[in-house]
Each structure stands twice: as structure tokens, then as C-alpha cells.
Amino acid sequence: MNEHIMVDVRNLKKHFTKGGEVLKAVDGVSFQIRKGETFGLVGESGSGKSTVGRCLIRLYDYTEGEVFFDGQNLSKLRDKQLKPFRRRIQTIFQDPYSSLNPSMSVLDLIGEPMDIHGIYKKADERKEFVAGLLEKVGLKREHLYRYPHEFSGGQRQRISIARALSVRPDFVVCDEPISALDVSVQAQVVNMLEDLQAEFGLTYLFIAHDLSMVRHISDRIGVMYRGRLVEVAESDELYDNPLHPYTKALLSSIPIPDPRAANEKMAVKYEVPTAGDGVVPELREVSPGHFVADH
Ligand SMILES: Nc1ncnc2c1ncn2[C@@H]1O[C@H](COP(=O)(O)OP(=O)(O)O)[C@@H](O)[C@H]1O
Ligand SMILES: [Mg+2]
């Protein structure tokens, strides 16, 4: 396959040191995301998903490894050289309450990233572009001069999405973008993300801790367990033919769609078997496109 690789993560490690203890949040993760694809990243809370996302946008410097974006090795770039990539790579976070500055109007919330990157210097053009984006995310022009507290959670997430898309990115890290939303609006937001992906030719990393929505949106899925990928496969293949015992455990614990239950820790009873020397197995391809790290 000679499909265009948008994101190429090679042996990424991010270790945190806390009071002399080393926490291996991400410990040797490799995967690729093709242009226009949605790559889902799943795993229990604390498995390192967000840390991978933060390394990709270089919010964190990483301990080891490399991240290539559209052929460029971001690992080596300094702040100034990273600036164009900080436009091309955007993020949507889980919590639409804390990620929007409450004292800014919708116009400025969505306009701010464009100001930072010097897009639309004329106020009227900027406003028209923002109004157009608002409509694309299912809001209205009359919302331009309102403030975050005047919106529901789902609407705020729509504002966050418009904000991320305002600078016309190529790649969006969606870090649990629907987890904090009412179940009734989750599907709407996911469908909208898919429509926007098709319209703007976006590539997504879609992070989630439950699997119910990820199957629907993802082309391929990587399963994370304690800082490592234990299985990577096409979405349907992963669900129909999970090979790693942790993936099987995770799939059998798909939470019921109840917002209160979704906050409870999923009970995935599983310990990754290591070889006698404590070495965790590497991912290997067991059928075309299906990788598993198992003995
Ligand atoms: N800035 C940080 N400093 C120290 N530890 C962190 C930091 N960010 C994340 N961690 C730790 O790294 C591990 C993975 O966290 P995270 O990537 O947020 O997991 P996930 O997104 O899968 O829930 C957790 O044990 C978490 O406590
Ligand atoms: Mg997270």
C-alpha cells in the first residue's frame, strides 16, 4: 500500500518522574495514521492515551522516540519551526466547560486561533468566516456575541470544534470529545465530526475509553494497556476477531449507555502476561493489518 501517511509514531516513550519514581505513561508505542483516516485509541483510564495525544501536538516533549507529521520529523523541531504544525494539528478535549474561556464571546473564541496564526486580518472577513463555521457545526450566526455559559454541553463542544477547525487543520486529536456529553447528544456530535472530516479532508486520532462509539467512527483501532499498544487492527476486524486477552476483556466490558455508569471505572480484570524475564511482547502482524502483542 502506498497510501499517504499523515502521522507516523515510532517507539514513542513518555516517562514522568515523581518523587524519584519513574512512571512510564507511554512506553514504546508505534503506529501510523493515513491521510483522511480515523485512528481510534482505546484503553482504560490511565493507560496513556491522552499522553500520546499530548506528545503528538508537542504539548509534552517526549522521553524517547519520534513523531513524523506529513513526512516531517517533529521531534527535532524547535518552537519557531513548530509554529506551522501548531496550526495544522489541532485538538478537541473532553471537557467543553474548562476548555473555553468564559469571558470570551463565541466570535473571539473561534477567532482567537486564527488571530494567533495570522489568518483573516480584516474584522468583517473574520466574522463572516466564523459565522459560516458556526453554521457548519450546527449553531447560528446569532450566537456570535454570546458567551460559553449560555450554551449546553453539546453546544459548547460544537464551539470547541469550530475553534479547532477555524485554522483549517489537517489533523485533529479528538481526546474523548463526547465522554462528558449526555448520551442523547453523543451520536449527533460524532456524526458531525464525520461530516466535517469528509468536508475538510481531515485526519483524526479519536481517543476514547469506551468502545461503543469508537467502532462506528474509526477505520482502525489501537488498544492501549499500561502505556503500550497490545493490539492494532481494522475496526470491524478488532471487534469480530479480537486476539489479545486484554482486548477481549475490554470488549466484554462495553459500558451500558448510562451517563452515571460511564463515570464508573470499568472493571476490566486483566494482567498482561509477561515472559519469565518480565519483558512485554512486541506487536507482530498475525494477519494483514492485524497486529497483536502476545506470546
Ligand atoms: N503531567 C503528568 N505528570 C505526571 N503523571 C502524568 C501526567 N500526565 C499523565 N500522567 C500519568 O500518566 C498515566 C497515563 O495518563 P493519561 O495519558 O492521562 O491516561 P489516559 O488518557 O489513558 O486516561 C497516568 O498514570 C497518569 O497519572
Ligand atoms: Mg485521557
Automatic annotation (TrEMBL):
Gene Ontology MF terms: ATP binding
Signal peptide limits: none
A Pfam family assignment: ABC_tran
Annotated keywords: ATP-binding, Nucleotide-binding, Transport
Residues annotated as domain ABC transporter: 7-251
Domain of life: Bacteria
Entry annotated with the keyword Mitochondrion: no
Alphabetical list of PANTHER family matching this protein: D,D-DIPEPTIDE TRANSPORT ATP-BINDING PROTEIN DDPF-RELATED, TRANSPORT ATP-BINDING PROTEIN
Name of the protein: Peptide ABC transporter ATP-binding protein
Gene name, Swiss-Prot/TrEMBL: oppF
